[in-house]
Amino acid sequence: MTVYVALLHSIILGAGRRVVMSDLRATAERVGFRSPRTLVATGNLIFDADAGSVAEVERALETAFVADFGKQVDIIARTAADWIALAGGNPFADASDADAANIVVRVMRTPLDNSVLKDLERRGGGGEKIRIVDGDVWIHFPGKPSESKLLSALTTKRLGPGTFRNWNTVRGLADMIEA
Asked: Does residue 114 contact residue 37 with C-beta atoms inside 8 Å?
């Protein structure tokens, strides 16, 4: 058995409709995943499954999500070991806890290489610190991430499927795995 983390790219189904985490857990159980649990109401799911590839887990969840919720969303999965490594690779871990909401990682389905770094740095220009660690993009924003010009360069269209999580969420998921 393997423990997985799955991250939904969006939990917005349409005007005024969001995915309820109990419904997301029920979808995971319907697919055959065991002990699904969620962290906050933003599409963070941890569950146990028989060994399979991350791609198989993503496909199963994405297919079930369409069936249950009527909308396609990208779901990015990692094994628990890979998630712990992601959390341990935070290049800004020495920042204060007060900055945790301003440190984000874009967890990528297909790892990025360092060739995109110069373009991202050029598009930001607001003092963001950007690093690529094991194919994921880590950013330490000097202020609110939502106010950065860099966001327009971090889209699925430009970089491929991925989803953002702040440092508090990354740590929270790691803590749930290790509990």
From this structure: no
Whether 45 and 97 share a structural domain:
no
**75 and 134 fall within a common domain:** no
Q: What six digits make up the tokens of 86?
A: 């992601």
Q: What is the reported pTM?
A: 0.92
12-46: pLDDT as tens digits:
666 667 788 999 999 999 999 999 999 988 889 99
CATH number at residue 135: 3.30.70
CA distance 63 to 68: 9
Question: Dihedral angle at the C-alpha atoms of 52, 171, 113, 51, nearest 10 degrees?
Answer: -10
Backbone angles phi, psi at 6, to 5 degrees: -125, 135
